[in-house]
Design brief:
378 residues; mainly beta; four-stranded mixed beta sheet
Length: 378
């Protein structure tokens, strides 16, 4: 600077960033909030508003709400709206007007960040919420549900099965209840509309396609007299005990054998029964001896469900009807007589020819019938 009277100067800008501290506690805008909700309904019922002077982009402004009193049955929750910072009070378990028509909650609000040491939460950091529950017409409730009973199949039509019982939770309204059939797939049941007594309108059948695993399921309605009426649904499960009401069946009922066969075994017969133990096997197989078939045919038991039908001698090429009687093990047993059609065919060069056998069609039963008929005609 020698030789000059004025020196050189410069300028600069200093930017000072002031970092906000949580020096303002959030405060509710009101000491008490009001809300109403219909019983049975869930969802947000009121938004609680607060004021906070701290920076809205920091945890010093963002709020956390807590229910500190009144939430005995844990029916309410409160969460922060991230945009508005409001507390969204929500019903998470449906309220019951008949249990309590009013609820009072005490709510506390805090910041995400802790307050600075010299600042504390004051009285306005808590608020009361008064909640009014509005009555609604609720459907009748069946108890017990389901109703389970055990009955024998084939009980008399008109027999009482059970009674359905439904009560109206709106006991302050003194409503009447009427019963009706909702789903009765086999159309076996009727319910008294006033007292809920169920009786049969048809024979119960354990072997019905509507019965699964020995159980039959029907449902019924209970309708109250409210405006509009409300409807509840109850279930009846009937376990059906088996009765020996089905004779056994035999299959196959057609067989073929060669007329000169050395093997006189004709066919293995199998028996089945729609009933269950002890009304099924072991089955008893026998020939109808009244027709004289025991001189030509033989039936031998193989096991509880199968028997071997055999020839005692070779027969000429023809069709033969062999009456086989099968009985189950029920008490008393049921029997079924089935004619087994046996085709005796000619067999040459590993080929079976039964074409002419069908024309002969010899039946031992018919031969006896015509013999008796001839005696009466003499």
């Amino acid at each position: 600077m020698a030789g000059t009277d004025v020196g050189l100067t410069g300028t600069a800008t200093a930017t000072i960033v002031i970092k906000d501290k949580n020096d303002h506690a959030p405060q509710f805008t009101k000491e008490e909030f009001q809300a109403s909700v219909t019983e049975g309904v869930t969802g947000v019922i009121v938004n609680l508003t607060v004021e906070d002077k701290d920076d809205t982009t920091t945890g010093a402004w963002r709020t956390v709400y807590t229910i500190i009193n009144g939430n005995v049955r844990q029916s309410f929750e409160i969460h922060t709206n991230p945009d508005s910072n409001e507390g969204m009070l929500t019903v998470v378990k449906p309220l019951d007007y008949e249990y309590s028509a009013f609820h009072t909650l005490l709510i506390k609000v805090e910041n995400e960040d802790p307050l600075i040491p010299d600042v504390a939460y004051g009285p306005r950091s808590t608020a009361t919420v008064q909640i009014t529950v509005l009555d609604a017409n609720e459907p009748p409730i069946f108890y017990p549900d389901p109703v389970t009973v055990t009955k024998q199949e084939n009980i008399a039509i008109g027999s009482v099965i059970s009674a359905m019982n439904a009560t109206d939770p709106d006991h302050l309204q003194h409503q009447a209840i009427q019963y009706s059939v909702h789903h009765d797939p086999a159309h076996w049941l009727n319910i008294n509309p006033k007292n809920g007594i169920i009786n049969t309108t048809a024979m119960l059948d354990r072997e019905s396609p509507f019965v699964k695993d020995n159980t039959y399921t029907a449902s019924f309605l209970a309708i109250d007299s409210g405006t509009p009426p409300a409807t509840g649904t109850g279930t009846l499960i009937i376990t059906l005990e088996d009765v020996n009401d089905n004779p056994p069946s035999v299959h196959p009922d057609v067989a073929k054998v060669c007329e000169d066969s050395r093997d006189l075994n004709v066919v293995i017969l199998s028996a089945s029964d729609k009933d269950i133990s002890p009304n099924t096997d072991p089955f008893r197989f026998e020939l109808n001896k009244q027709t004289g078939t025991d001189k030509t045919w033989k039936i031998s038991r193989l096991n509880n469900t199968h028997a071997q039908l055999s020839l005692l001698q070779n027969l000429k090429k023809a069709n033969y009807n062999v009456p086989v009687v099968v009985s189950d093990s029920g008490k008393p047993p049921l029997s079924n007589s089935t004619e087994i059609k046996v085709q005796v065919c000619s067999c040459k060069k590993n080929k079976m020819d039964c074409s002419s056998a069908s024309a002969l069609h010899i039946s031992v039963t018919l031969l006896i019938f015509f013999s008796i008929f001839s005696l009466f005609c003499l």
